[in-house]
Amino acid sequence: MALSKLEKTEKFHRLKERIKNIILRTIKEKEIIHGEQAVAIRLPPHLQRHTRDYDIFSETPRQDADEAEDELDEDFGGDFFEVIQGKHKGTFKVKSKIDGRTYADFSETEGKVPSEVIQGKNYVTIQFIKRRLRAILKDKEKEFRHTKDRDTLNRIAIHEKRMAQQSLGTQLKQKKKEQMLSLISKKKEQQMDFFKSKGMKFI
What we know:
Layout: H1 5-15, H2 19-26, E1 32-34, H3 36-40, E2 54-58, H4 61-76, E3 81-85, E4 91-96, E5 102-108, E6 115-118, E7 121-124, H5 126-137, H6 146-197
Parallel strand pairs: 2-5
Antiparallel strand pairs: 1-2, 3-4, 4-5, 6-7
Helix pairs in contact: 2-4, 5-6
């Protein structure tokens, strides 16, 4: 039996927490995640910006968007999602028919995009993200997003500084450990030399 409009809305909101994992499992080997999700995967929770949508580079964006929509509709048990063409050529959005939000953007891959595997999926490198954000900050036509992008760069910088401090701390601890082991080894050698000089033998 077909659901009423209110029943369908209630079902969507009851199941919407599944959307992220459903989209993730449709992302294949040649697809590359970029945008805020590529930042969030690397940052601790308090430095992440809340976002639901995924931005994905793809060689076949329309096909991959359709596959994601089909997977979502199948999991939700009805016609809950749709694919629409974005403002930019080669971009296709997977949107909810219930709340109107975009949950995935599939765009044509922009040439050779550097990426690395994190938790089994390809994400653009942090260097690629920073380079792109800095270019946007120099573009006066994109001034409307400068505050948001500057915040993203700052959050990345905070995390990188903390990681560098942790790495330095680990190196110092390792160096101290090595120095202690070296000191213990020298003391043992001195003890052995002392006993040998006294004519004592060890079995």
